[in-house]
TrEMBL record:
Annotated ranges, domain Beta-lactamase-related: 13-407
Designated name of the protein: CubicO group peptidase (Beta-lactamase class C family)
SUPFAM superfamilies, per the entry: beta-lactamase/transpeptidase-like
Annotated stretches, region: Disordered: 204-245
Signal peptide limits: none
Matches recorded under InterPro entries: Beta-lactam-related (IPR001466), Beta-lactam/transpept-like (IPR012338), Beta-lactamase/esterase (IPR052907)
Natural source organism: Nonomuraea soli
Biased amino acid composition, Low complexity: 204-215
Length: 412
């Protein structure tokens, strides 16, 4: 195990080591800050299971939907400057949008009714975010905006990103570099350059070749390169023992949605379809594209550092952040099936954002498909980042990060 761990957080290290010993990790990193102090910074394993390249202190990974919290933060910086009002119609800033009932808040809280792009997006448009946004501007919502919420897996970023571009004249990725990652010294890119792509972790769904524990594959394996995973043969085991909501048939229904290629969930996850490129999320064009909903390339240290800075008031004013994490929507998610909860772009504790009981008041952040997790807690001064390269099904993949997070809270 590489890095350092404050003795108060020894349980985090112990659980991280066990994950590797049981063959649950190929390579991964975890970082924790407490009141601005780095108390955990650990990494181990290999960044590329085919070449054996070891995971290093500065190995970044493609963190999927952890991106959404960063993009939301960029938009909130524009709100602080008086350039955007979340209560205003999107068309105020983007006249071609043409849906006067859809507000900026609806975009931030997954209430816009535009989680799916109707027509397939060709590879040639992957980096042409305005073109993808124009497709959404021409569509009719699936439900009355504001009447319900459903996870906008990829469209979230193209919608918010276009508002950001129209207001600031810059892309979300450019603002991340200029106003967040650069000033704070964070290894975080929304649109990774070649030298970062070259040293990034390569995502996989396979277990490591050598294991010290039961080698049987889990029933929760995702398919190659992070494509929506296959169905589980039984309902997902949920963390009821950790103070979360008990398992019920909602999780079986969620598994069914993941398994059905034509389900709204898979249609939302699969367009634009990164699997049109060899290697999917590992392809340089995907990592360079900077999709504002699922394009972040970052280290665990930088992901935790981002939340440390948020909690410390270094990116947004305290009142802005506290208002942003106020729950706007909670309950059954139209696409994810199980309950989700969102503030202005940030996930709040729910079935889709598992947190220990101690974090239910102040915790906010975002998960990423396969197990990625970034979190801040305004009540405890905690910041957390976890970046693995072995992807697991969302429901049990989240438990690896959750157990590390639980141990972090136990140390407080």
């Amino acid at each position: 195990m590489n890095g350092h761990c404050d003795p108060r957080f020894a349980r985090v290290r112990e659980i991280f080591e066990k994950s590797f010993a049981k063959g649950e990790e190929v390579g991964a990193a975890v970082a924790v800050y407490l009141h601005g102090e780095p108390v955990v910074d650990l990494w181990d394993g290999v960044a590329d299971r085919h070449t054996g390249r070891p995971w290093a202190a500065d190995t970044p990974a493609y963190a999927y939907s952890c991106t959404k919290a960063i993009t939301a933060t960029v938009l909130l910086t524009l709100v602080e400057r008086g350039l955007v009002k979340v209560s205003e119609p999107v068309a105020t800033y983007w006249p071609e949008f043409g849906k006067p009932d859809v507000t900026v808040e609806h975009l931030l809280t997954h209430q816009a009714g535009l989680p799916i792009i109707d027509d397939p997006v060709p590879v040639e448009e992957f980096s042409d975010h305005p073109a993808i946004a124009a497709r959404l501007a021409a569509q009719e919502p699936m439900w009355e905006p504001g009447s319900r919420h459903g996870y906008h897996a990829l469209t979230y970023g193209f919608l918010l990103g276009e508002v950001i571009r129209r207001v600031s004249g810059k892309t979300a990725g450019e603002l991340v570099a200029a106003e967040i990652a650069g000033p704070l010294g964070l290894d975080m890119w929304l649109g990774a350059p070649d030298h970062v792509i070259d040293r990034a972790a390569r995502l996989t769904t396979n277990r490591p070749a050598a294991r010290t524990a039961d080698p049987a594959p889990t029933p929760m394996e995702a398919s190659a390169n992070g494509q929506p995973p296959a169905p589980a043969p039984a309902p997902v085991e949920t963390p009821a023992a950790h103070g979360q909501a008990p398992a019920d048939d909602l999780f079986t229904r969620m598994n069914r949605a993941f398994a059905d290629p034509q389900s709204p969930l898979n249609r939302a996850l699969g367009n634009p379809d990164m699997q049109l490129l060899p290697g999917g999320a590992n392809h340089p064009a995907v990592m360079a594209s900077g999709w504002p909903a699922a394009g972040l390339v970052t280290t665990a240290r930088a992901l935790a550092g981002f939340y440390r800075a948020l909690v410390a008031g270094e990116i947004l004013q305290e009142r802005t952040l506290r208002d942003a994490i106020r729950r706007r929507v909670s309950g059954p998610d139209e696409l994810l099936i199980v309950d989700s909860s969102f503030g202005l772009g940030y996930m709040r504790p729910s079935m889709t954002f598992l947190t220990p009981t101690a974090g239910h008041e102040g915790a906010f952040g975002h998960t990423g498909m396969g197990g990625f997790l970034g979190l801040g807690d305004v009540e405890h001064g905690l910041a957390f980042g976890y970046t693995p390269n072995r992807l697991a099904r969302a429901a049990d993949g989240a438990l690896r990060g959750y157990l590390l997070l639980e141990a972090s809270y136990q140390a407080l």
